[in-house]
Amino acid sequence: MPLELPELPYAYDALDPYMSAETLEYHHDKHHNAYVTAGNKLFENLPHLGETLEDIIVNAYEDGHQALFNNAGQHWNHSQFWKCIKPAGGGAMPGNLEKAVKDNFGSAEAFRDAFITAGLGQFGSGWCWLIMDKEGKLAITKTPNGENPLIHNQITLLGCDIWEHSYYIDYRNARAKYMEAFIDNLVNWDYVAELYKKAAG
Fold first, then answer.
1. Domains in the chain, ordered, with CATH?
2. Is the dihedral of CA 84, 90, 176, 197 positive or negative?
3. pTM for the predicted model, two decimal places
4. Buried b (16+ CB within 10 A) or exposed e, 40-52
5. What is the pLDDT of residues 147-182, one digit of tens each?
6. Contacts of range 29-33, beta carbons closer than 8 Å, 24 or more positions apart
7. Where are the beta strands (DSSP E) in the chain?
8. Closest CA relative to residue 48, chosen from 65, 71, 36, 70
9. Rounded to an integer, what distance in angstroms lies between the CA atom of residue 80 and that of residue 61?
10. Residues of the chain scoring pLDDT < 50
């Protein structure tokens, strides 16, 4: 199953001033594309690992194909990331999602603070996630490098890339400012709410 680099769902300069065109050009066209290119080369010499990208990621992880897992996982992570952000994002959550967030975290503000804290607490490169666990509860998690909720049997609702390549051009080493800009101004809450509705059945 060949990996394909998705088109960005917005123009390169559409996320200014919170994420610059230069960042998107490097992040999407170079970093994400590198995972696609490397992943496709690795596929050529490995046995069949599944029909879907999600199956391939889980099976590569379980079977110890670390290089394929890293690149296929990062391709999946980034493909989700582009959908989780939009121009003029942030703001209020749709009602169904807001209720679930309040039920699980106490308030939207408490969720915001916990999400930022989790992102800042990830040592080195990785990701911060809002997920639904096996019991149907919402939780915030973080994963190192290219790991994602798929391998933990969790459903991803929101993912934030906290590798330095996602923010260093715009924020230098200020990960906190990047996390705040992401959660306050970039999140596509309509998309997150759609994922929540689907996951909740």
1. 21-84 (1.10.287.990), 95-200 (3.55.40.20)
2. negative
3. 0.97
4. bebbeeeeebeee
5. 999 999 999 999 999 999 999 999 999 999 999 999
6. 31/78, 31/163, 31/165, 32/5, 32/74, 32/75, 32/78, 33/5
7. 126-132, 138-144, 155-161
8. 65
9. 19
10. none
